[in-house]
Prior knowledge:
The structure is a homotetramer.
Chain A (H helix, E strand, L loop, with lengths): L1 E6 L3 H12 L3 E7 L3 H10 L3 E2 L3 H6 L5 E4 L6 H10 L3 E4 L7 H11 L6 E3 L7 H11 L6 E9 L6 H5 L4 H4 L2 H11 L4 E9 L4 H4 L5 E8 L4 E7 L7 E8 L2 E5 L7 E5 L2 E4 L7 H4 L1 H15 L9 H20 L3 E2 L1
Parallel strand pairs in A: 1-2, 1-4, 2-3, 4-5, 5-6, 7-10
Antiparallel strand pairs in A: 7-11, 8-9, 8-15, 9-10, 11-12, 13-14
Helix pairs in contact in A: 4-5, 5-13, 9-13
Amino acid sequence: MIDIALFGLGRIGIMHGKNLMRNKDFNLKYVYDIDKNLTKKYSKILKAGSVNNPNIIFKDKKIKAVFIASTTNTHIKFILEGVKNKKIIFCEKPLDLSIKKINKCKKKIKNLNPKIQLGFNRRYDPGHNNLKKQLLKNKIGKLEKIIITSRDPAPPTISYLKSSGGIFRDMMIHDFDLCRLYLGNDEVNEIHAFTSSFVPFYKKIKDHELAVVTMKSKKGVICVITNSRHCSFGYDQRVELFGKKGMLISGNKKENSTELFNSNQTNSQKPFLNFFIERYNDAYNIQLKELISLHKNKTKSRSTFEDGYLALKLANAAYNSLKLKKTIKV
Amino acid sequence: MIDIALFGLGRIGIMHGKNLMRNKDFNLKYVYDIDKNLTKKYSKILKAGSVNNPNIIFKDKKIKAVFIASTTNTHIKFILEGVKNKKIIFCEKPLDLSIKKINKCKKKIKNLNPKIQLGFNRRYDPGHNNLKKQLLKNKIGKLEKIIITSRDPAPPTISYLKSSGGIFRDMMIHDFDLCRLYLGNDEVNEIHAFTSSFVPFYKKIKDHELAVVTMKSKKGVICVITNSRHCSFGYDQRVELFGKKGMLISGNKKENSTELFNSNQTNSQKPFLNFFIERYNDAYNIQLKELISLHKNKTKSRSTFEDGYLALKLANAAYNSLKLKKTIKV
Amino acid sequence: MIDIALFGLGRIGIMHGKNLMRNKDFNLKYVYDIDKNLTKKYSKILKAGSVNNPNIIFKDKKIKAVFIASTTNTHIKFILEGVKNKKIIFCEKPLDLSIKKINKCKKKIKNLNPKIQLGFNRRYDPGHNNLKKQLLKNKIGKLEKIIITSRDPAPPTISYLKSSGGIFRDMMIHDFDLCRLYLGNDEVNEIHAFTSSFVPFYKKIKDHELAVVTMKSKKGVICVITNSRHCSFGYDQRVELFGKKGMLISGNKKENSTELFNSNQTNSQKPFLNFFIERYNDAYNIQLKELISLHKNKTKSRSTFEDGYLALKLANAAYNSLKLKKTIKV
Amino acid sequence: MIDIALFGLGRIGIMHGKNLMRNKDFNLKYVYDIDKNLTKKYSKILKAGSVNNPNIIFKDKKIKAVFIASTTNTHIKFILEGVKNKKIIFCEKPLDLSIKKINKCKKKIKNLNPKIQLGFNRRYDPGHNNLKKQLLKNKIGKLEKIIITSRDPAPPTISYLKSSGGIFRDMMIHDFDLCRLYLGNDEVNEIHAFTSSFVPFYKKIKDHELAVVTMKSKKGVICVITNSRHCSFGYDQRVELFGKKGMLISGNKKENSTELFNSNQTNSQKPFLNFFIERYNDAYNIQLKELISLHKNKTKSRSTFEDGYLALKLANAAYNSLKLKKTIKV
């Protein structure tokens, strides 16, 4: 059993907390949130100790790993503390909203042999990951196109949206990262973005309801990412890889495989699994298994600090394209 | 262009008439029905001559082929006349309801080199026929099980039902024949039947609304056929072949490949094509092509008089099983 | 945490042991097998105490529940001991091979308020169970037909087969039970069976490789069950309910939702989940949750002793039909 | 029967000729190609008169309709002659490569009450057209995104490619038009394009193997079109409409609905229908029916001269975006 601590008790932090509580390989020793009431409340629910000073966690030698799910602007600070104190780190995306700050951190931890797993859950999804495996097995020949659809069932809270960094850094960052996974040693060279909002609220907070980004890699691979903050039929998560010899599709998941036929329709199935907690449940378990392997020095992380950094650069370039109405060279 | 005549102007006769009228390879020269008004009416609609005496058709040397879609008890008579007069014959199923009568006819036409195509349209369906091809290519290894589902969207008229010969001879006869197609040189050895009726009317006319037949072949292949006289979601026509190495399924057809996703459901598709006219439209065209090949002596029929005879024997055995509540040796 | 003990360390016992070990709500205190070496070996693997005398388990007051996965002929004995000692009981199917023995047991435990969950895992499968829910919601109107396909990826060991009670009691018993679930307060009235074996070995041990059973209920519902001891493409588990207003299908599960398209094929997916451990994994977890509810007196079991008894009667009737080559009245 | 003449005997012209020959409502009276040998050859095959001077066709009062499938730079000339001589006109896409020339033509025919059907076959496809109908029925609420995939199984001949006008004007023009169909009274406002070529040949002839275009309409609808000149698994033709309340998908068509299951895979289906002749066969028949309705003054064309003009403008804007590496205002 690995002693672990959790920073941040928002929606995603609570989800990670529950996963850790249920997992026989981890002992959730501490939880911490900047809101003391939240810390108190969830220390009970998650059967963990309550801590109001993060340093207690970093100084506890028994704590082997920390889970950073606090607000984005605290990530870098906690990563630095964690790495200095030899903790294995799980950090939610995005790393930060400032490339400069990330760069500084990069230099500081460079020689400290950091063990960091970024929260790019799609890399751990058995379906999306199977596509990478099939690609490496040359099942579709040379890769020519990547098409990713990612739609949330419903927008997050207003307060979340306001500090999220915007649709490209908060949501599409997962898809930028997935493109990078499939591109392998190829790199994105050019990028273009369109966005749209049908609900006026998004314009008020200078964010976007829908977004589509196209990219072209150095080797000529074309990437298309479409995002939506709403989706009436569930959490729509699809990847399509098109190659010289064939195509691979990673589709959606449903609660069960039942179909209804009646006089109006045939093959009617349930809506997709509601959201990331359900859809990427397997992925979260695989992430936890990787943390154990990192602890035992048996593996490198599938999703690194560098991946977090490079995905953010693509998100920033997308904003640039939007502003300048141009194809942007990355 | 082949000069052709049509006997019988019921539902299926009219359908054949329209197919013939639209086909540039055939000239529908005559139509005949025992009901003179029908003959008159459809001779106009189908742009064909109207004949009240079948002999005019049989004696017309230019007529190369006859389409027999009249009531079942006239089939044998017209076949005999047709064969004697060197006509190519298309005859709807069933051949007749009396095995004895068929046997007599068999002997009479034996030496007349008859060219007869039975109306077993499923043999000509590209999907069901593709299963036979794949089977012969050994795609699923040795055949072990045949499972056929056949459900009509709605029952025919009462008057049709009363003279139809019952669900086994009128409807399941297609599926008995399909089993024989897949069995190839193997033969049905044992048979058992259950039926059921939820609408009381069927009992009144001594027919059945639902039926399930199981059979075992000499080589041990198990066959399951389920029929229903109603089906709310269209014309349900499926075949499943299970073998040592795999399984083949021939599925339903829809008007188009569109799907609807909303908050209640995903992948909702249209009901199946409504009925045999639409579902087996391709099959009917292929049947017409075969008639031309028969005319040119280029082929034998895929669906013979003998096939009609043997399918009827299975239908009769099914009735026997029902009556005696026993497994019947065929 | 509920203290629990496991009887029997064969394939299925080990699976249950691992599920219990991983579950934070249970403490697997003891394991027992008639083979002392097995007991020793798995007490380590499953981190449980090793017991060579079952009475130690029954007399341990802290043990709240027992898992009976030992050989079939020991089930009744352990159930009796368990019920007498107020244990909650999980028992694998079949209850026993002797109806007489079961009847005796029934009488003995009748007044002891037994809490017994039979191992009919399909009742707990979210897909198959969803069909029951939709049926009760009248989604397909009056039920008219039940069609169940169940195929194992590969046969069990010879020694297992020899003492299994045969394909109807060992394998199809699940499907007999499922039919009963969907029939609700209706009952099977008539039954007929065919079997077949393509591998000669099955005849030697007087068992069967394939089986098909048809049944008719008192209200006229027709049931079709087809079983196979082998299936090249995985564990094929499907249910189709056909009703007056529509049809419901519960389909197979795959490891992930990826599809491959190339010049030979489209929509090619992975084989089905390999076997019951994977396919009914969710079901096993739901079964464990029900045990906790039984412990808290919050529920009755979804799968009772009586269900085990009635399914076995159908299995026996199927053998009868096979022997007498007749439709058997149940 | 409508007397009709065909201009152009290339791949698409021959296809139209065969459709006309098979159709009982049309009499293909003349064929014409600039290559006299082709004219001669196909006048026999298509059982039509052979004409070396187009004027003979235009001056023949019995000719009610002309089919223009000749090289693109002759379209406008033949349209003008046809309209002046009161012929109903079918014209293949694109109208021309020069917007100026089209504009001139537009003015000339304005007051001549022209009856012109553009060859935008996708508008007549039952699947793609069903999406428009469902959209108008408000099945998915307000339209927010259009995603079109169009991939040819293999590139056309080099000589064709050289005079085709390039991928945007020759191939994607269909998809520009489809977007306009779904947008209804909304209009494309901004456009961006990326292209890529993995086979060097395309760069030599200044064309592209792959292309992706994104567009944003005045009302904020986002459109994504991806094209490929090759596709190993057949002719990939898909449309996805995403709206406030749901999603509609129009999928691919296959020769039949059979599936293969074996130890490597499940649900393996046939490649998609090979190419436009097969895929849009229904559409071509519906187009011919519309021509008859146009002749009888019963309808307006679903696909007009103006549609041809506006789709070409989008194609040109795409080239502009590519050249200037900018978002282009249309």
